[in-house]
Amino acid sequence: MKSMEIAGHDQTGGILADWISRNELARELGITTDTLGRWAAQRKGPAYVKAGRKIFYRRDVVRAWLQSKEVQPVKPVRRGRR
User: Fold this and answer.
1) CB–CB of 21/7 below 8 Å?
2) Which of 6, 5, 55, 57 is nearest to 29 (CA)?
3) What is the DSSP letter of 13?
4) Distance of alpha carbon 70 from alpha carbon 66, whole angstroms
5) What would the pLDDT profile of 6-58 be if each residue is shown by its tens digit?
6) For range 63-77, the mean pLDDT
7) What is the pLDDT of residue 2?
8) How far is CA 22 from the centre of its chain?
């Protein structure tokens, strides 16, 4: 029986089910893999694992990293009339 694959993700619960590649993450975030590489070098991006030449990010770590970057809108300061 063949494993089911949807949008490049193995749905059988394989060893990489909770991980995303650098290419996939870049595509989902709408940025380049070069940006992710630069962030990694500057230790600004999400934590990752390097397996040979492949780089993987744990999905829950990426979600936590994104939440840590959440910015609350700043309320404008209302000044009284002069």
Assistant:
1) no
2) 57
3) -
4) 7
5) 455 545 679 999 999 999 999 999 999 999 999 999 999 999 999 999 999 99
6) 92
7) 45
8) 8
Q: What is the DSSP string of 18-70?
A: TEEEHHHHHHHHTS-HHHHHHHHHTT-S---EEETTEEEEEHHHHHHHHHHT-
Q: How far from the centroid of its chain's Cα atoms is residue 16's Cα?
A: 15
Residue 50 contacts residue 43 (beta carbons within 8 Å): no
Phi-psi region of 43 (alpha: psi -120 to 50; beta: other; left: phi over 0): left
d(CA 16, CA 57): 10
- CA separation for the pair 44, 76 (Å, rounded): 29
Q: Looking up tokens 């939440």, which residue turns up?
A: 67
pLDDT at 3: 43
